[in-house]
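Exercise: predict the fold of this chain.
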Amino acid sequence: MRDDPGDDLVSYPLTRRFLMGRGRHRMTSDECRVLEDAAGEVKTFPPRHLLVRRGEPVERSMFLVEGYVSRYMDDREGYRQIVSIQVPGDFVDLHGFPTGRLDHDVGTLGPVKVALFDHQVLTRITEDHPRLTRMLWYSTLTDAAMHREWIFRIGRLGAEGRLAHFFCELNARMEMVGLARDGRFGLPLTQPDLAEACGLTGVHVNRTLRVLREQELLVFREGQVEILDQRRLAIVAEFEPDYLFSDCSAWKCP
């Protein structure tokens, strides 16, 4: 465990948000340094840019330094389902390291900065740093937990619950990495994006956002989120944040 994790912002400018708020404190300074030094090329991409195409070979994994990325799948008629949204501090496609390809597309939502980790370098980490390897594995397991929660959200909640849950989760995740405060954060999504993430039509999203606003729960306007009543919104969402495995008591189930 590190003696002074507050130095992360200076010492690890690329990977400082890896597992931030969900176990990073258990990483040693050496492990943080190994991960930071393993980052290779750093790239920036514009909004709505395809990063990885389904089925294509991948030889590097992307770590999201800034911005938002979505994983998505399109049906034969071109209709899209967003299956996850990645925030700063997330490995976008670490699961492509053992599989060698992805079963979905990956694209940017707004402008992003990513650090690229060559799979040969990740192989050396798995061989030389077993504890750090477990932390990388842990990060993919938290991804899997969020996928299960997304299935629950779309399968069992109505429109208000789906949107409320979506915003509750992103607020918690952004707060854990220091990018949300008092229920406020930037989110470069459109209403059609929300529809694709929540299994709704654009018209239904527009109507439901208005209902949440009129109930003084949430305002989403021009890429900015303001949660007006986090407790009541979580009730509407049936939001139980234990699946995020947060260090912060605010995002642990009582």
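Check your answer against the key: Strands lie at 42-45, 50-52, 60-66, 69-74, 80-86, 105-108, 112-118, 184-186, 218-221, 224-227.
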